[in-house]
Amino acid sequence: MLELNVPSRGLLRLEFLVLDLNGTIALDGELLPGVRERIEKLRPILEPWLLSADTQGTLSALAVSLGVGAKRLDPGDEAGQKLAFIEALGFDRVVACGNGANDGMMLREAALGIAVMGHEGLATACLTTSDLIVPGIESALDLLLFPRRLLATLRS
Protein backbone atom coordinates (compact mmCIF):
# COMPACT_ATOMS: atom_id res chain seq x y z
CA MET A 1 0.00 0.00 0.00
CA LEU A 2 1.10 3.52 -0.77
CA GLU A 3 -0.06 6.05 1.81
CA LEU A 4 0.25 9.70 1.00
CA ASN A 5 -1.08 12.54 3.14
CA VAL A 6 -1.67 15.41 0.74
CA PRO A 7 -2.12 18.79 2.43
CA SER A 8 -5.66 20.14 1.90
CA ARG A 9 -6.64 16.92 0.13
CA GLY A 10 -6.22 14.32 2.84
CA LEU A 11 -4.86 10.81 3.13
CA LEU A 12 -4.63 8.63 0.03
CA ARG A 13 -4.38 4.89 0.72
CA LEU A 14 -3.59 3.41 -2.66
CA GLU A 15 -3.56 -0.36 -3.18
CA PHE A 16 -4.05 -0.82 -6.93
CA LEU A 17 -2.27 0.52 -10.00
CA VAL A 18 -4.54 0.31 -13.04
CA LEU A 19 -2.79 0.89 -16.35
CA ASP A 20 -4.17 1.32 -19.81
CA LEU A 21 -2.02 -0.82 -22.09
CA ASN A 22 -1.79 0.53 -25.63
CA GLY A 23 -0.61 4.11 -25.84
CA THR A 24 0.15 4.30 -22.13
CA ILE A 25 2.69 1.58 -21.27
CA ALA A 26 3.08 0.03 -24.72
CA LEU A 27 3.46 1.23 -28.30
CA ASP A 28 2.41 -1.07 -31.15
CA GLY A 29 2.10 -3.92 -28.64
CA GLU A 30 5.63 -3.56 -27.22
CA LEU A 31 6.39 -2.31 -23.71
CA LEU A 32 8.00 1.10 -23.62
CA PRO A 33 11.57 1.29 -22.26
CA GLY A 34 11.81 1.41 -18.48
CA VAL A 35 8.27 0.18 -17.81
CA ARG A 36 9.19 -3.38 -16.81
CA GLU A 37 11.78 -2.28 -14.24
CA ARG A 38 9.48 0.31 -12.68
CA ILE A 39 6.53 -2.08 -12.42
CA GLU A 40 8.78 -4.67 -10.77
CA LYS A 41 9.73 -2.06 -8.15
CA LEU A 42 6.09 -1.05 -7.63
CA ARG A 43 4.66 -4.58 -7.28
CA PRO A 44 5.44 -4.83 -3.54
CA ILE A 45 3.66 -1.49 -2.97
CA LEU A 46 0.72 -1.55 -5.42
CA GLU A 47 -1.10 -4.40 -7.17
CA PRO A 48 -0.80 -3.65 -10.92
CA TRP A 49 -3.54 -4.38 -13.46
CA LEU A 50 -3.54 -3.92 -17.21
CA LEU A 51 -6.78 -2.97 -18.97
CA SER A 52 -7.10 -3.20 -22.71
CA ALA A 53 -9.35 -3.98 -25.64
CA ASP A 54 -6.18 -5.78 -26.80
CA THR A 55 -5.97 -4.15 -30.21
CA GLN A 56 -2.43 -5.49 -30.69
CA GLY A 57 -3.16 -8.97 -29.27
CA THR A 58 -0.38 -8.80 -26.66
CA LEU A 59 -2.30 -8.27 -23.41
CA SER A 60 -2.01 -11.80 -22.01
CA ALA A 61 1.66 -12.25 -22.89
CA LEU A 62 2.63 -8.85 -21.47
CA ALA A 63 0.66 -9.43 -18.26
CA VAL A 64 2.34 -12.80 -17.72
CA SER A 65 5.80 -11.40 -18.45
CA LEU A 66 5.21 -8.55 -15.98
CA GLY A 67 3.58 -10.76 -13.35
CA VAL A 68 0.47 -8.57 -13.18
CA GLY A 69 -3.26 -8.98 -13.56
CA ALA A 70 -5.03 -8.27 -16.83
CA LYS A 71 -8.57 -7.55 -17.93
CA ARG A 72 -9.51 -7.77 -21.60
CA LEU A 73 -12.35 -5.40 -22.43
CA ASP A 74 -15.24 -6.46 -24.59
CA PRO A 75 -15.96 -4.46 -27.75
CA GLY A 76 -18.15 -1.44 -27.03
CA ASP A 77 -18.26 0.92 -24.05
CA GLU A 78 -14.65 0.41 -23.08
CA ALA A 79 -14.84 3.57 -20.93
CA GLY A 80 -17.72 2.12 -18.94
CA GLN A 81 -15.91 -1.19 -18.51
CA LYS A 82 -12.80 0.55 -17.20
CA LEU A 83 -14.91 2.54 -14.78
CA ALA A 84 -16.70 -0.60 -13.56
CA PHE A 85 -13.36 -2.34 -13.07
CA ILE A 86 -11.94 0.33 -10.78
CA GLU A 87 -15.28 0.62 -8.99
CA ALA A 88 -15.02 -3.09 -8.12
CA LEU A 89 -11.52 -2.49 -6.71
CA GLY A 90 -12.72 0.56 -4.78
CA PHE A 91 -12.31 3.99 -6.35
CA ASP A 92 -10.57 5.35 -3.26
CA ARG A 93 -7.84 2.67 -3.46
CA VAL A 94 -6.89 3.07 -7.14
CA VAL A 95 -4.27 5.06 -8.97
CA ALA A 96 -5.06 4.93 -12.69
CA CYS A 97 -2.91 5.88 -15.68
CA GLY A 98 -4.17 6.35 -19.22
CA ASN A 99 -4.04 8.43 -22.36
CA GLY A 100 -7.12 7.64 -24.45
CA ALA A 101 -10.65 8.98 -24.65
CA ASN A 102 -11.87 5.76 -23.05
CA ASP A 103 -9.67 6.47 -19.99
CA GLY A 104 -11.28 9.78 -19.03
CA MET A 105 -13.98 8.44 -16.68
CA MET A 106 -11.50 6.08 -15.02
CA LEU A 107 -9.04 8.92 -14.41
CA ARG A 108 -11.79 11.14 -12.97
CA GLU A 109 -13.08 8.56 -10.49
CA ALA A 110 -9.80 7.01 -9.32
CA ALA A 111 -8.34 8.32 -6.08
CA LEU A 112 -5.44 9.47 -8.23
CA GLY A 113 -5.78 9.82 -12.00
CA ILE A 114 -2.63 10.35 -14.05
CA ALA A 115 -2.94 11.32 -17.71
CA VAL A 116 0.05 10.16 -19.74
CA MET A 117 1.17 12.13 -22.78
CA GLY A 118 2.80 9.53 -24.99
CA HIS A 119 3.69 8.71 -28.56
CA GLU A 120 -0.01 8.32 -29.40
CA GLY A 121 -0.87 11.68 -27.84
CA LEU A 122 -3.35 12.46 -25.09
CA ALA A 123 -7.11 12.63 -25.51
CA THR A 124 -8.68 15.88 -24.36
CA ALA A 125 -11.03 13.89 -22.11
CA CYS A 126 -7.97 12.98 -20.03
CA LEU A 127 -6.89 16.62 -19.76
CA THR A 128 -10.07 17.62 -18.01
CA THR A 129 -10.55 14.58 -15.77
CA SER A 130 -7.11 13.66 -14.43
CA ASP A 131 -5.42 14.92 -11.29
CA LEU A 132 -2.19 15.51 -13.17
CA ILE A 133 -0.59 15.17 -16.58
CA VAL A 134 2.88 13.74 -17.15
CA PRO A 135 5.06 13.65 -20.28
CA GLY A 136 5.38 9.85 -20.33
CA ILE A 137 4.72 6.65 -18.41
CA GLU A 138 8.20 6.73 -16.90
CA SER A 139 7.30 9.98 -15.13
CA ALA A 140 3.99 8.57 -13.90
CA LEU A 141 5.59 5.45 -12.43
CA ASP A 142 8.45 7.47 -10.94
CA LEU A 143 5.92 9.65 -9.09
CA LEU A 144 4.66 6.48 -7.41
CA LEU A 145 8.18 5.26 -6.67
CA PHE A 146 9.11 8.68 -5.23
CA PRO A 147 5.77 9.84 -3.76
CA ARG A 148 7.10 13.05 -2.20
CA ARG A 149 7.12 14.37 -5.76
CA LEU A 150 3.35 13.90 -5.78
CA LEU A 151 2.99 16.05 -2.69
CA ALA A 152 4.62 18.97 -4.43
CA THR A 153 2.22 18.71 -7.35
CA LEU A 154 -1.06 17.82 -5.62
CA ARG A 155 -1.04 20.15 -2.61
CA SER A 156 -3.13 23.26 -3.00
Structure notes:
By secondary structure, the protein is of the alpha/beta class. It is built from 7 helices and 10 strands. The protein has helices spanning 35-42, 59-66, 78-89, 104-109, 124-129, 137-145, 148-154; strands at residues 2-6, 10-14, 16-20, 26-27, 30-31, 47-52, 69-72, 94-98, 112-116, 132-134. Strand 4 (26-27) and strand 5 (30-31) form a beta hairpin. The longest helix has 12 residues, at 78-89. It is globular.
What would you say about this model in short?
The chain has 156 residues and is an alpha/beta fold.
How far apart, in Å, are the first and last alpha carbons? 24 Å
Major sheet: size, sense and barrel closure?
A: 6 strands, parallel
Mean pLDDT: 94
Helix content: 25-40%
Discrete helix count: 7
Beta-strand proportion = 25-35%
Structure characteristics:
156 residues, six-stranded parallel beta sheet, 7 helices, two-stranded antiparallel sheet
Task: Please write out the topology.
Layout (H helix, E strand, L loop, with lengths): L1 E5 L3 E5 L1 E5 L5 E2 L2 E2 L3 H8 L4 E6 L6 H8 L2 E4 L5 H12 L4 E5 L5 H6 L2 E5 L7 H6 L2 E3 L2 H9 L2 H7 L2
